Write the structure tokens for this entry.
Amino acid sequence: MKPTTRLRILAHFRKHQTASVRELSRFLGMTGANIRHHLAVLESNDLIEIVGQRKEGRGRPLHVYGLSRRVLGDGLDKLAGTLLDIWLGGAADERQEAGLRSVAEQLAGVTDAKVPVMKRLARAVERLNELHYQARWEASAAGPRLILGHCPYVAIVADHPELCRMDAFLLETRLGSSVEQAAKLQLNDKGLPFCAFLMVGN
């Protein structure tokens, strides 16, 4: 089966790393408008991204495209895991806890302890989503429950379960209230893992 235009574009990036619309147009024998359409679709699916600009003759510099960081991978999970091993490995429990609290406070940003609880929850969810948790909250008989639909550290959390404590400290800092973990990477009705924390007291 003949590869599609988009597959040929991706193969070109794998081989040559970068290309402009003009280069792809020459390589594929297509108009610039056609190439731009295919690039826009690939970019919207996070498969490619603009990686720079290049001057080709007169006129404005042209965008240069390449495979996205998501496709290429970035090694951040290995780096973060190694840093945690060095930083926390063999440390006493008190030192570990103090370190995790410090990181959590930096990630949490401002504390909203003096605003009404509903506003605190909304702002906590907003901050969590800035940090890629896909968070929401819901009422429950035991109190407000914060659902984290995505673990940003899923690649290393099995080797570093202390990151769940850091999440709890982050929530406590943001909410100005204690929390208890109620679910850890439990599957929801769509078969996707989530974590949940219960807000204890206001």
About this structure: The CA atoms of residues 77 and 94 lie 25 Å apart. The first strand starts at residue 18 and ends at 20. The two ends are 62 Å apart (CA to CA). Residues 5-72 form a domain with the Arc Repressor Mutant, subunit A fold (CATH 1.10.10.10).
